[in-house]
Amino acid sequence: MDKLEKEKNNLVDAIVLGLQEKKGKNIVVVDLTEIPDTICGYFVIATGGSPSQIQALARSVGDKALELAHQKPLAVDGLHYSQWVAMDYADVIVHILLPEERAFYDIEHLWADAELTRVPDLD
């Protein structure tokens, strides 16, 4: 594994840990690295139970990514309404959604060829 790949894996691991610390549900890592012409290498998708939990999840992801992977997001969008927050880390994009939005958009299945890794809920 080269240095760049290790950094990406460290970032994905830090993001997942941040989501787990605030009880994010149904965490899925979508590996897009083998699919040509995608916007990024990975999506990390999680469900939050309320707008306030989505805000807490986003803060936790930001804190863990900075602490463990030394990375800050390039952009964060959706915090105002907190129904769907997207955090852009260039090669990793985090999506934190309310259950209704997640079911409606079903973004983890946009790429049929992508490898999905489901992270067990902690509780």
Main attributes?
37% helix, Beta Polymerase, domain 2, six-stranded mixed sheet, single chain, 123 residues
Would you kindly provide a written description of the structure presented here, covering whatever features stand out?
- This protein is α+β, with helices and mostly antiparallel strands.
- The protein has helices spanning 3-21, 51-69, 99-105; strands at 25-31, 42-47, 75-77, 84-88, 92-97, 115-119.
- Helix content is 37%, strand content 26%.
- It has a 6-stranded mixed beta sheet with strand order 3-4-5-2-1-6.
- A hairpin with a 3-residue loop joins β4 (84-88) and β5.
- α1 (3-21) packs antiparallel against α2.
- It starts with a helix and ends with a strand.
Kindly report the CATH topology: Beta Polymerase, domain 2
Q: What composes the largest sheet?
A: 6 strands, mixed
Q: Mean pLDDT, rounded to whole units?
A: 93
The poorly predicted ranges are none
What fraction of the residues are assigned to beta strands by DSSP?
25-35%
CATH architecture: 2-Layer Sandwich
The level-1 CATH class: Alpha Beta
Order of strands across the widest beta sheet? 3-4-5-2-1-6
Helix content: 25-40%
Taken together, the total number of domains comes to 1
The secondary structure category is: alpha+beta
Anisotropy-based shape: globular
- Compute the separation of the termini in Å: 32 Å
